[in-house]
Write a structure and sequence with these properties.
Structural class: alpha/beta
Order of helices and strands: HEHEEEHEHEEH
Radius of gyration: 16 Å
Helix content: 25-40%
Number of helices: 5
Low-confidence stretches: none
Oligomer: single chain
Number of strands: 7
CATH class: Alpha Beta
Largest sheet: 5 strands, parallel
Strand order of the largest sheet: 2-1-3-5-7
Strand content: 15-25%
Mean pLDDT: 83
CATH architecture: 3-Layer(aba) Sandwich
CATH topology: Rossmann fold
Length: about 160
């Protein structure tokens, strides 16, 4: 939505939108068929020990209020339509974070009869967080990289290195 204003006002409004988007992203979590290991780690990031909310991230219950979709697990045939519907219900601009090796490349579920594929085959993904399951620190790092890319669109999002 573009309002016809002078360039200085339009620039100020765009900067305000970017500031609000970076400082208070609301997220929704979607499990598309994982073993729940990643889900437990995502919830651990919200506890006081790791405190993802210090970056302004708030977990929402409705996709209509969320800016970031955090997905775990490979996409099953049953979850495919629900994932698409959830993604389409989110307001623009929307961002997707794929968490865990199953969400990135179907992991241990590769070749199963009910698996459609990874998350990127169904919806576009902005940040990949590898691991099985990824540690809460890696999830926080991925979310912070997403927020930094929103603040400076010229920078690309990088994923954390795999632990050895």
């Amino acid at each position: 939505m573009t309002i016809n204003l002078s360039n200085s006002w339009q620039t100020a409004i765009d900067q305000l939108k970017t500031w609000a988007r970076v400082n208070s992203p609301w997220a929704i979590h979607f499990n598309s068929g994982s073993c729940n290991g990643c889900d437990i780690e995502i919830l651990a990031t919200l506890t006081p020990r790791y405190d993802l909310e210090r970056f302004g991230v708030k977990l929402q219950g409705s996709p209509r209020h969320a800016d970031v979709l955090i997905c775990t697990g490979p996409v099953t045939r049953l979850a495919r339509e629900r994932l698409l519907r959830t993604y389409e219900q989110m307001p623009d601009p929307k961002f997707v974070v794929a968490v865990g090796s199953c969400g990135i490349a179907s992991g241990a579920f590769t070749g199963c009869y009910n698996i459609v594929g990874n998350i990127n085959e169904v919806i576009p993904v902005d940040v990949y967080i590898p691991g099985c399951p990824p540690r809460p620190e890696a999830i926080i790092y991925g979310v912070v990289q997403l927020l930094q890319s929103l603040q400076n669109p010229s920078k690309s999002v990088k994923t954390p290195e795999k632990e050895s």
